[in-house]
Design goal:
Length: 329
């Protein structure tokens, strides 16, 4: 897993090349919405893309992480199936309903049933490399592929390409500092339960970190967002909880009122939490800031796994779950 995290900038480079070479048939009619079905490491890629494009893409970019497609999917919808393995049963069920409801389909996967479906039905698809043992380590493929779908179909400009280039340069040049910060963070989280807060602007980063702590370090944790948590969760902080470590994921240019809310929340929570840590992003664009944090926090989750002496790649409980589900299928 450590080697896969190290290869993240190389993955972005490869994903860009795949995106540049992707051939998509232009749409005859502009859809009223774009809909992505994906789970886990594939689904979180869609969460990132939704945030990256919301100030440019003029139609909704919606994500669904379950078996059923909503009733509003129809012939005016563009539906994207995103599954690294190509065999995620929820995604397959969901996208098959989208087909029945008349949506235009595009598939993103490394192979499996989803690529077979695309070939059989003549759907456009982007096929990513299959030689990565952990789908959660393939976030770059998921994000970049979706961005290229939007670009090649005319929903966004080419600006994201420059943002990705700057991201790669940033995380490569800052590699030593990133690992140092990640190591410090992992040590601060050892033998504590992580509570992750961010503004709504970068909630996918918080979700990703929660998932990586779950899967890589085999630990429970939770996350919430500002300003929403100021209306509910903040009230729960009213007694000493030394076993909790609070991490605030931050951008210096977040909405000023949210930055002020973060400072006030830190002050309140600081009276009760065992540890309170600020992690600031780097970069200019939201893509740079988000992927810088992702890379740093991915490292931290692997370093935390090392402290707990657990194998970050192993996901036996999920494998058992899938085996039991296949027997009942």
């Amino acid at each position: 897993m450590l080697e896969m995290v190290k290869r993240f900038p190389d993955q972005l480079v490869e994903a860009i090349e795949i995106g540049e070479n992707a051939r998509l048939i232009p749409l005859k009619n502009k859809p009223t919405l774009i809909y992505v079905s994906g789970m886990g490491g594939s689904g979180i890629g869609a969460d990132f893309v939704s945030g990256f494009v919301k100030e440019e893409c003029e139609i909704p970019y919606l994500i669904n992480k379950t078996y059923k497609a909503p009733a509003y999917i129809n012939s005016s919808s563009l539906a994207i199936a995103s599954s690294y393995s190509g065999n995620t049963e929820e995604t397959l069920s969901n996208i098959n309903q989208c087909i029945l409801q008349g949506a235009k389909i595009i598939c993103i996967a490394s192979g499996g049933k989803i690529i077979d479906l695309a070939k059989e039905k003549g759907y456009d698809y982007i096929q990513v490399p299959s030689n990565w043992s952990s789908p959660r380590a393939c976030l770059g493929y998921s994000i970049v592929s979706q961005l290229y779908v939007l670009y090649k179909l005319g929903f966004i400009s080419a600006q994201f390409k420059n943002d990705l280039k700057k991201t790669i340069e940033l995380i490569q040049s800052d590699n030593n500092s990133i690992q140092e910060k990640a190591n410090h963070l992992a040590n601060s989280l050892y033998n504590k339960t992580a509570v992750i807060y961010s503004t709504d602007r970068i909630e996918p980063v918080a979700v990703r970190f929660r998932q990586q702590i779950n899967e890589n370090a085999k630990r429970l944790c939770w996350h919430h967002v500002i300003p929403e948590m100021n209306h509910n969760e903040l009230v729960g902080w009213r007694e000493s909880r030394p076993e909790l470590a609070t991490i605030f994921l931050r951008n210096s240019d977040d909405y000023p009122r949210n930055n002020f809310r973060t400072e006030l929340s830190k002050e309140i929570i600081g009276h009760f939490s065992g540890v309170s840590i600020d992690i600031f992003s780097k970069g200019n664009s939201l893509i740079e800031k988000s992927l810088y944090l992702v890379h740093l926090l991915d490292y931290a989750s692997v370093f935390l796994a090392d402290l707990y002496k657990v194998n970050p790649v192993e996901i036996k409980v999920i494998d058992i779950l899938k085996e039991q589900l296949s027997r009942e299928n």
